[in-house]
Design a protein that fits this description.
The complex is a heterodimer of chains A (165) and B (180).
Chain A (H helix, E strand, L loop, with lengths): L1 H5 L3 H22 E5 L14 E5 L13 E5 L11 E8 L4 E5 L2 E4 L2 E2 L13 E5 L4 E5 L13 E4 L3 E5 L2
Antiparallel strand pairs in A: 1-2, 2-11, 3-4, 3-11, 4-9, 5-6, 5-8, 6-7, 9-10
Chain B lengths: L1 H23 L3 H16 L7 H12 L2 E9 L7 E4 H15 L3 E12 L5 E12 L6 E12 L2 E10 L19
Parallel strand pairs in B: 1-6
Antiparallel strand pairs in B: 1-2, 3-4, 4-5, 5-6
Classes of the chains: A alpha+beta (165), B alpha+beta (180).
Chain lengths: 165, 180
């Protein structure tokens, strides 16, 4: 066991340790951000206190898609590693109109099928037209009144990446 | 070898010198960050805070704001709230201590921009607040405007920023942790 962990040569062990530290730093800073989910707005998909990762490399080659759960920064995009972020689901894409009628989501006037929304919803939100760089995001748990739920339009540069789990 | 040692020593000396310089003559950004950290500490309180400490901390919180400060708070799920002047800051701090037994406030991801006149600045940050009675963590993007008045950076304006907007212009639809 000792040999597996530390090796026979302390120089190689140190080198392996250094590579491991650098790899962890790069992976958990630039590739996947570890996060802990706080709150109930993404129930039942994500439980309060659960651990997840946000893939920062999810969208360099293609745009965020409807249904993706994404991490959204609250801070200025100049902050490289934000301490907190929203975890929300994309339901509206750039240029579309989004509305809630008796809890049903209407995208360009058509009802959106949302199998992830389990608790029911009675929201009524007037139609919103999204700009060319805007997405509409909302949590999966819409059982509370809409004024208690953080949702709405978000510019593309505030989307950090896609939830991995 | 001697030359290498001398170069290393010189580099270390320069690094220590620069570090000391920033300690003795901190930049406005650093001063503002320190003051904002102090504001967060003063706004927070523990369940076992005594009556005298409660008054003193509420009073000292107001010292970080200008006399004509305007605080506009708009947090989802709460009534919109405006606080005007230092007295109302103190009252709001005391009211928050009556409303909940403990409150932890942190200012995260602080981005300070000092104006070209070096007398004004803005700080964009994320407030993270957790009240003992509230299961949910409250996070809110906020903008602080500060001015250098009498050699001190004082907060003259605080406003909430809606990260996720529904309409182009939203009337105040909520409030804040302190005071409501």
């Amino acid at each position: 066991m000792r040999i597996v962990l530390f090796g026979r040569n302390w120089k190689f062990t140190l080198a392996r340790l250094a590579v491991l530290v650098v790899a962890c730093f790069v992976i958990f800073r630039f590739v996947v951000l570890p996060i802990r989910v706080e709150g109930i707005s993404m129930l039942p998909t994500y439980q309060n206190g659960s651990v997840n990762f946000v893939n920062r490399l999810a969208y360099p080659w293609h745009s965020p898609q409807r249904g993706d759960v994404v991490g959204i920064r609250l801070s200025d995009p100049s902050i490289m590693w934000p301490s907190v972020m929203y975890l929300k689901r994309i339901i509206g894409l750039p240029g579309e109109t989004v509305a809630f009628v008796d809890g049903a989501v209407l995208i360009n006037g058509k009802v959106l099928d949302e199998p992830y929304e389990k608790y029911g919803c009675d929201w009524n939100i007037p139609q919103v037209k999204l700009d060319p760089d805007q997405y509409f995001v909302v949590g999966d748990n819409r059982s509370m009144p809409s004024q208690y739920h953080e949702f709405g339009r978000v510019p593309r540069d505030h989307i950090i990446g896609k939830a991995v789990l | 070898m001697k030359i290498v040692l001398r170069v290393v020593l010189l580099a270390a000396l320069i690094a220590v010198g620069v570090w000391l310089w920033t300690i003795i003559f901190p930049s406005p950004q650093k001063i503002i960050r320190q003051r904002l950290e102090a504001v967060a500490r003063r706004a927070s309180f523990a369940a076992d805070e005594g009556t005298l400490a409660r008054m003193a901390n509420a009073q000292s919180l107001a010292d970080y704001f200008s006399t004509n400060v305007e605080v506009n708070l708009d947090v989802p799920g709460r009534d919109g709230h405006t606080i005007l002047g230092r007295d109302e800051i103190t009252q709001a701090a005391l009211a928050s201590r009556s409303a909940t037994s403990s409150l932890s406030i942190k200012f995260l991801d602080v981005d300070v921009t000092v104006g070209p006149d070096k007398r004004s600045a803005t700080a964009d940050l994320t407030v993270e607040a957790r009240a003992s009675d509230d299961l949910d963590l409250i996070v809110q993007e906020m903008k602080f405007t500060l001015q250098n008045i009498g050699g001190q950076w004082l907060i003259t304006r605080v406003e909430t920023i809606r990260t996720l907007s529904i309409l182009d212009f939203e009337p105040a639809r909520a409030a804040f942790i302190v005071g409501s």
